[in-house]
Amino acid sequence: MLEDLFCTERPKPVVRVQPDGRVFRGGQTVTLTCDIQETDVTSWSYSWNKDDSEIHVSQSQEYRISSVSESHAGNYSCTGRETGGSRYSHTSDKVTLTVSGECVYICSHHSDYMSKNVCK
């Protein structure tokens, strides 16, 4: 078809999360990867969104969150833009990052006066 010569289907990225799904706060690192397949574009710039607001743009397909806290919880998605070009990908489906676990300070009343941090 004639339109195939001028228009190519925009790819749709897939966001992968490592570790997957639920993480516990307190020093844990989460890596989001924007995976764009089946395209002739050799170089992408990646735009990361959290709750529909752009938070990061990079040449790397990975977005790393270190020392995860409750503020990082939300819905993440990515979009690719051709580096030095005008083509865009679709926006990926959203991936929900849930941060759980509450660190509480427990003071022991035993004779040894031990105290410790407990995360549950």
TrEMBL record:
Keywords, alphabetical: Disulfide bond, Signal
An example Gene Ontology molecular-function term: transmembrane signaling receptor activity
Coiled coil: none
GO annotations of cellular component type: external side of plasma membrane
UniProt key word Phosphoprotein: no
GO biological process: cell surface receptor signaling pathway; immune response
SUPFAM superfamilies reported for this sequence: Immunoglobulin (SSF48726)
Pfam families: Ig_2
All copies of domain Ig-like, residue ranges: 13-96
UniProt keyword annotation of Disulfide bond present: yes
Official protein name in the record: Ig-like domain-containing protein
